[in-house]
Amino acid sequence: MHARQGMTRRGFLRGAACGIAAGLMPWGTARAETAPTRLALTHGNGRAANVYDALKLIEPQVREGLARKKTVVIKPNMVSVNQQLAATHAECIEGILEFLSPLVKDDILIAESPANGPAHEGYDNYDYRRLAKPYRVRFVDLDAEPFQTEYLVNERHHVRPVRFSSLVLDPDVYLISAAVMKTHDRAVVTLGLKNIAAGALLKDGGFRWGAGSRGKTDKHLIHGGPENQGIHYNMFMLARRAPPHLTVLDGFEGMEHNGPTEGTPVDHRVAVAGTDWLAVDRVGAELMGFDYRKIGYLSFAADAGLGETDLDRIEVLGERIADHVRAYRPHDTIERQYLWM
User: Fold this and answer.
1) What is the pTM of this model?
2) Residues 6 or more apart from 174 whose CB is under 8 A from it?
3) 8 A C-beta contact, residue 90 and residue 177
């Protein structure tokens, strides 16, 4: 019974993704006419410096994107408000702000909806508040902001309404995903896209993990069922709705084994940045030693032409990928996570 359900789920997910891909992807010679995708990879002994240097390498692409938007929003990853290894470090945000300072004249919003508690606790615990002195920033709790209704699937492929941040979906926003390179217990890895797709799903203001919590959260609905039957399809669909315009992966200290909250540190000292979210996440997975084709949502997005995944067509500025690949230990449930294939 379990195997038959798995086959049905795989058929549904692959069929749906390929059907969408047929409508999105300009298959054929049009692909060959595009210029290679550029992204940056840096390595060094300073987290903020790594991020800043990576962004400087792709400054023309970032400037081009900023010129078309009114507001800049940095979305950190705070799956936990009280565990630094699981969250975007303030020094990563500092590197981004230092780069943006001469390019953006208005306040830059730092906006988050942590999984296990209120945003203000994360901002306090991780010392984000100090960034308000040298930079023009404003801190936003996405759970207190307007939302729009999006739809995800559950394990029976029925749609479920969810609250999704209106700020993240705002067409006038230049959205930056500032993520940590981590393994994951359901989606293999956490990188730039997952930070947006899961992080912009909202919860009630009083919600916390654990017994006695007040309110509800919509974040778990991205899993698509108790065995994560729809997680990759849901991530893929949200990638079409809210792709980041700029992705920054902070791998100065990554997380391996039982991420995204119970893993152990990896002294990697890298940063990746680019305006093609799929190319950045694909390179991030490569640096962590994972085959992106085994990561469902990245595979679906590649089939749909949502970005570049061919390393021969990705121009990496700065360091060479091959020089910095580390074999991150995967989550204990990794084989079960690969059952979508």
Assistant:
1) 0.91
2) 65, 66, 68, 69, 71, 72, 73, 245, 246
3) no
Given 3-state DSSP classes, what are the helix, strand and coil percentages for the chain, each rounded to the nearest 5?
40, 25, 35
Report residue 263: phi and psi, to 5°. -85, -175
Tell me the per-residue pLDDT of 54-95, one tens digit each, with 9 for 90 and over: 999 999 999 999 999 999 999 999 999 999 999 999 999 999
| Parallel/antiparallel/unpaired status of strands 108-112 and 246-256 | unpaired
pLDDT band at 214 (very low <50, low <70, confident <90, very high): confident
Domain boundaries, the chain: 2-340
CATH class as words, domain 2-340: alpha beta
Share of the chain above pLDDT 90, in %: 87
Q: What is the pLDDT confidence band of residue 7, given thresholds at 50, 70 and 90?
A: very low
- Where are any strands of DSSP class E within the chain? 37-43, 71-76, 108-112, 137-141, 147-153, 159-165, 173-183, 189-190, 246-256, 264-274, 314-318
Other CB atoms within 10 A of residue 291 CB: 12
- How is 41-77 classified by DSSP, letter by letter? EEE-S-HHHHHHHHHHHTHHHHHHHHTT-SEEEEEE-
Q: Residues 296, 340: contact at Cβ < 8 Å?
A: yes
| Antiparallel, parallel or unpaired: β 37-43 and 264-274 | antiparallel
Residues 181/86, Cβ–Cβ less than 8 Å: no
Tell me how far apart the alpha carbons of residues 142 and 112 are, in angstroms, rounded to a whole number: 5
Q: Find where tokens 């730092």 sit.
A: 110
Around 213, how many Cα atoms within 13 Å sit in the side-chain half-sphere? 16
